[in-house]
Predict the structure of Transcriptional regulator.
Amino acid sequence: MTDRLAKSDWISHGLLTLAAEGANALKVGPMADGLKVSRGSFYWHFRDIADFRAQLLQAWQEEATDRVIRDLEAQKDRPDRLKQLMRRAFATRRSLDRAIRSWAAEDREVAAIVSSVDARRVAYIARMLAAAGVEGQKAQRRAAFLYWAFLGQRMVMDPRHAAIAPAALDDITDLFEK
């Protein structure tokens, strides 16, 4: 059968569902209906809904953290990696991230994964700052502050204050690297 869904189709659909409707919408029947397949397709790829949810979180971590770090690390010769990260981070739509953080507020296991991702992100930013010459503890505090700004940006409702031009982000980044 050439029209059989792959596991990645289910993961993609699950991430879209999570971003649009939240964790409570991650139910086999409605998702199968949305994909126009039987529930059996789901169980072909996943043991149960818990397995599916764990793999969704793993996919989110891979896409939103691991791949970003790999992309930046591949550019070792470029001194402006923090600027690239800032531009990328503040330009992306984060409805999935918001949904996962809402889910984490209700589920300890999800909260532990999100906490681990947060720690990894802050540590990576701190390493970038240290590589730019910022002393250890200062680099850690500045990294935490930058990450707080990243998380807080999604809360701003007034569109005039919800985005910053790339050149302004570069200017702000320079402040943190001194």
About this structure: The chain has a mean pLDDT of 91. The CA atoms of residues 105 and 111 lie 7 Å apart.
